[in-house]
Amino acid sequence: MTAVAVPAQEEKTRRARIVASPGAWLVWGSVTFFFVMLAGVIGSVVVSSFGRRWFDTWLPESWTTQWYGQAWHEFTLLDVLIVTIEVSLLVVGISVLVGVPASYVLARRSFPGRRVLYLLFLLPILMPPITYGIPLATVLYKYGLAGHMTGVVLANLVPSIPFVILTMTPFIEQVDPAIERAARMCGARTWQVFLRILAPLLVPGILAASILVLVRTVGMFELTFLTAGPDSQTLVVALYYTMSAAGIRAQQSVDAMAVIYTSMMLVLLVIALRFVNPTQLVARVKEDPS
Amino acid sequence: MTALRHRLAERGIDRQLLLLVPALLCVLILFIYPFAYGLGLSFQPSQGGVFGAYREFFADAYQRDTIWTTLKLSLPAAFLNVAASVPIAYRMRGRFRGKRLLTVLLVVPITLGTVLTAEGLLNFLGPTGWLNRTLMSAGVIDEPVRLTNNYWGVFFSLVITGFPFAFLLILSYLSGIDPTLERAAATLGAGWWPRFHRITLPLLAPGLATTFCLTFVLAFSVFPSAVLVGDPAGTTRVISIAAYHAAYEAYDYPLASAIAVVMGVVELAVVAAVLGMRSLFYTGSTGGKG
Amino acid sequence: MSSFDTLRLDGVTRRFGGKDALSGLSLEIHKGEFIALLGPSGCGKSTALNCLAGLLPLSAGSIWQDDRRLDTLPPERRGFGMVFQSYALFPHLSVRKNIAFGLQMRHLPRAEVRRRTDEAIRLVRLDEHATKLPGQLSGGQQQRVAIARAVVLEPSLVLMDEPLSNLDAKLRLEMRTEIRRLHQSLGLTTVYVTHDQEEALSMADRLVVLRDGRVQQVGTPEELHTRPANRHVADFMGYRNLLPMRVTSVTREHVGVEGPGMTLTGTGVGDLFPGDEVVAAIRPEDLVVGEGGVPVTVEVVEYQGRELAVEARTDQGIMLHLRAAERPAPGDKVSVVADPARVLVFPGEPS
Amino acid sequence: MSSFDTLRLDGVTRRFGGKDALSGLSLEIHKGEFIALLGPSGCGKSTALNCLAGLLPLSAGSIWQDDRRLDTLPPERRGFGMVFQSYALFPHLSVRKNIAFGLQMRHLPRAEVRRRTDEAIRLVRLDEHATKLPGQLSGGQQQRVAIARAVVLEPSLVLMDEPLSNLDAKLRLEMRTEIRRLHQSLGLTTVYVTHDQEEALSMADRLVVLRDGRVQQVGTPEELHTRPANRHVADFMGYRNLLPMRVTSVTREHVGVEGPGMTLTGTGVGDLFPGDEVVAAIRPEDLVVGEGGVPVTVEVVEYQGRELAVEARTDQGIMLHLRAAERPAPGDKVSVVADPARVLVFPGEPS
Amino acid sequence: APEKPKSTTDGPVPDKPGKAVTLNILDVAGDLQLTQGMIDEFVGKNKDQIEKVTYSKATAPELVGKVKAQQNAGRVDIDLVLTGVDGLAAGIDQGLWVPLLPTYANRVPGMSDYLPGAASMQKLAGDFGVTVTYYPSGPLIEYLPAKVPTPPKTAEELLAYAKANPGAVQYARPSNSGPGRTFLMGLPYLLKDSDPKDPMNGWSKTWSYLAELNKYVTLYPSTTSETMKNLANGSAKIIASTTGWDINPRVLGTVPKEAAVGTLAGFHWVTDAHYAVIPKGVGVDKQAAILNLLKDMLTPAQQAKAYDKGYFYPGPALKDVPLSMAPPESQQALGEYGRPEYEQLIASNPLEVPLDAKSLVAAFDKWDREIGGAKVKK
Ligand SMILES: Nc1ncnc2c1ncn2[C@@H]1O[C@H](COP(=O)(O)OP(=O)(O)OP(=O)(O)O)[C@@H](O)[C@H]1O
Ligand SMILES: Nc1ncnc2c1ncn2[C@@H]1O[C@H](COP(=O)(O)OP(=O)(O)OP(=O)(O)O)[C@@H](O)[C@H]1O
Ligand SMILES: [Mg+2]
Ligand SMILES: [Mg+2]
User: Fold this and answer.
1) What letter would DSSP give residue E1?
2) Pair (D205, D341) in one structural domain
3) Whole-complex ipTM
4) Residues 6 or more apart whose Cβ sits within 8 Å of residue C331
5) B86, B141, D345, E288: which is deepest, by most CB within 10 A?
6) pTM given for the model
7) Which one of B27, B129, B173 has the shortest CB-CB distance to A121?
């Protein structure tokens, strides 16, 4: 498919267009600027995390991996990483499974009380966990659900499900309802329509929502801390601790923790983007058939 | 029986609405009770009657102003994130070499987390960070520019974490729009700008609205970076700091809940305004014959 | 579910924002029948199909399958097949998978799915394109996928919404034949929407003519063609010349009518009395050049395959459409006549 | 931009994934011409239009407007109008706004936009629906919006991709007339894709017949209809009876051919010699019941408006399509003859 | 699976748990750095009492919420909390802790050997907590001798220095920083304010001093680490510090070894300590194990581990725990980075307990409004 040589002339027109447009320059210019800034931000942390001492100089005096080793041992990071990944995948999976059907109904149907429901689903996103975190943890503890992974997952579902609902609604609106009707005419039940027709068409949306939920879950300190038990701490609790707990801590070890945190997320992100394309398939076929 | 079902169906109530049930249950069980508890708490301050906590908040200019401080940070940040994502995502339609890599790179900052962002900003933009060093050795400035521990530090961190978020969503929403429509507009003599703002933008509006709301909400509840790279006692004393202070330093949970409720209400007002505008726009299938 | 004897539509009505797109459609469809829905653009044909399929809830009326009420069932439980006017192909599935989808939904054995899918692909001549995605097909190819996807299920009732509109004449004829063949060999019941009266006439057992959401006439192709119930049906059935006239005489067989600059003899439809305002309807092919008729001046001559389509104007400025075997030149003055049996006279409604 | 004398396509080729959808299309279009692209489904008609409009980059070849190279210009700078086969209406704009869009792009005064939009809406008979969104329209109504949107601009070149496929016969005739009228009164140049040869024949000045991406014949309607260049064109132009035969004799005027159980006399196309394998092409309407012809048994009789379409089979099992004025019964044995001038004999290609 | 509370939560605490227990220890003060070695050693030797310990760490403010949630639900799975003054006080205020004292004071005999400062700190814990580590803290000032050849010797000189070098003096926002708050609490003593324990009414000199200083402070970082970093990279010249923050960061390498500390004339130490508390709802078996653990921790041999690498210098809460008892790494680190002058300074300056929680929060609030937030107002 991709091996077809693009005729030289086509190439030329394209290049000509890029050269011609000042808008393009502006856009790519700002993108480059953003990347430079980003590289500076990330780079300085990474460099610092490998530096033994770094005072008033361009680069640290000497290099070391001791900060990583320390962080790894201090927080038994392997376990924490495993828990983090388990929790976040569970949260992402469940909130997509529960959220997408709900957003489907909200996007497609009009029924009495739709607005009220929409508001209801908005609230958990709007309300800071301060309002509901402690009572939520109480409820979960009462039923023996907190203090281990179940509680962490359940608590994180509270903002995640509405988040999926909110992000998915416009995606679902974009899908032509006639396609669903056609599937029904082929005898597909609702769940089959979801599985076989909607899900593939919504892949970019689900991907985006999942990534965002993942990021939020991995970074959700409050709810996780309140409901976690000693062996269901996630990375963010450890990170948050290194960052803001009392006591003395080398800057570099915070940086190392942050780098570990980011690396984990990055791996997940790259895996996700490796297998799924955030461009909708429909557009991909029509976009530039060559 | 069937007659009843018929009548209900006419009003839009049928079995498909059952798809809402899991999400609704989650929110009702896990959120509504805890939230009602927190809400109730906000009306039971230790002194000052039912609205005492709210009165306390609004009577104190130092507290009340946090709303404005937060809006001043979050609205421009959300706006910039969305506004910058649109042209970049728009440029990223179509196929070109390295598109996937570029996408990944633009989305990467989402994995940074607040801690790394904060550390990175402090390291990189700090008085002896690489940026100031570069500018000073290039002779552009004599004194280091202050870019951290003030409004700008927080603003940058909101951009770094918010932009990829907005970009990912908008890129996905954008790809759900049938490219044929733009081609049709081109044959009608529309150049790229009218094509964009008359065709693509309105079709993207629902997605933009949602993206804006979500980035705004994320920015509005900014906490760690407001403390870490901001000036938490002064220019970036955002409302969540006030809530945090009440809850975790003064252990005044009624006041904390009240502040959090105020936060939710302010966010709700903005979100409602945006979603209200969104309903003025077309929502529905964005492609296909028929 | 699958089989039935009759399907009864009872006052089926569908309103969109206060306007009836379909109003009071009552019809009994028997097993094995081939019904064509016919009517001008926007008359409610697709709406009727969608109501039957269960894709649009009814605003009033009911649908019965034998003695079972159908209109409360969701579409997937009615077991009908449908070709959508907009095709509605699954954009993410290849041609083959689009077609196989319905079979897979019925959990048929893999081998059978394969066999039947292959057969359907062959039927619509898409063997070469089986692995393409819908976005990579031409318009007509897409339409054929839509046909294949519906008929491969061999459903008890097939609903087809303009299934051949984007096919070339030759393929259209082939497809028509295939559809009829399937209809007959599998004993399907078919409801077929078309804008093409020739197609309707040649394929259907019965025709339903709609106008503005209302049924105008239900009947066999011959009935409709030779005895349209009103001037709208006539208009639609190819009576291109609709001339407002006044009745001069009424006999048992014929009606004499008179208009500006011409008198004609025709056959009345409904009760007519001298002096009534009427409309005389004549097909172009029934208006022929002949002695002693209405004198006209040829204006436009169009080549139409074998015949020539001619537009001519009477001295009073009324435009007539006729056919000619030889090529008259624009400006020629000729006289045209029509067989009274082929001139239909309808009461003139205020239109 | 707007006006030109000739538009020259020079070896225009478009490949999709290694397969030519359109190959080497060379054509000169003169100002004011009405060109119809005709050909079976999937032959590359839409591809050709898209290339012309600038929506698909060419894989090879070039397009010239007078002496300006066109194929490197983006679509919006070519100033052509286009009716998409899939309509491509703007789903968020009302009918009126869809139609006004192009005019607004040209920054015409508001009053003129309004006037011309109203006129176009009236032209396509959508006055009642002007405020609806495309999603609220019937298929045919949508198609009419697409037509109005393109013609309202009065562009120097209008490209129409099956613009009438979803309209009923009556409306289609009206629209045809309107399109021709616009074409003539505004002096537009039109490239018109249709699958309907009748439409092509009646509207176009010249026809281009494509097959598998290649041009088969370019000519006036009459040329194509009476002297198709090869059996594919013949097939496409309604010569439904394509009989594989062998040449027995060749005279200056006629060719004698012989097939299983029948002998015919026809007119040769190209050089033929006795013994050659050929294909005799005859239209159904040229095969008539008459004395001393080929004996056949009637199998299927279809009512088609005025005439009857008959399928009959020779004793050797070859199927013939013919027309009859009177209704024969299936099973009747009749004899059919054809005028030698109307029997075309083509060299038989290995198909 | 959720652990059902196996033993009763009230009633007399046995001498030893009936069966070896598992302890979940939550550290919100960074105390494990000092005490984990002690705990591990005890657990290693007393498998019959404590089967296993799990450690988790958190920040103090969130602790209260979590314990409350568990207590409201009747399932407490945090058995022992190691906390600083703030968490201790918040918990007392919210009624979270088991009143171990004076009932079981005799089970932890080490408590009678507290250093005087530690003993005062123990008073803050009322009936609820047991002091496990202690240090005199600050306020100190820290600087690089190369950049500040003549460091200020009094509060007034510090102000004058700041005036002469705008932006050079830095202390972190008190509510986020130990040295920051020690500086804040130490000022009333330095300035001889009327009531050093009453920030609202007795600190008038302190507040006007801070306001004046504020004019020359460009930045109040949100963490102590940042002030240290700024000191190291030269963007700050003099920062507030404590004994632990002086030694440990130099050991870790975040601050140059050559950094020096100074004191301001007439300063009082504002001491600090870490406490062990047991949340209500913990079974008596576990309480028994914890009491035995605490008894062991408050022995000189164990306390010597608190020297660490100067993290909480000196660290031990008990009398007569010289550095020579500390593990060799501690001795080595402190040999290299320690400051012998501390002994003298500790001995010769008065020790004061920090503000109580309510007053401290009020002081933070006032600081935020009038000092930290002053730049935005007007
Ligand atoms: N994106 C694509 N990828 C691969 N093949 C394509 C693509 N688009 C079109 N084709 C193929 O190119 C050929 C020509 O397509 P085109 O749309 O031009 O046909 P057409 O003449 O318009 O047919 P129709 O009358 O059915 O609309 C078809 O066989 C089609 O399958
Ligand atoms: N969603 C809608 N909202 C409002 N009006 C609608 C809607 N859908 C259809 N209509 C109107 O209902 C009428 C009937 O539409 P329908 O699609 O049934 O026509 P049709 O007979 O299929 O026409 P065509 O031959 O053009 O496809 C049309 O006038 C159309 O404008
Ligand atoms: Mg329709
Ligand atoms: Mg086409």
Assistant:
1) -
2) no
3) 0.86
4) C297, C298
5) D345
6) 0.88
7) B27
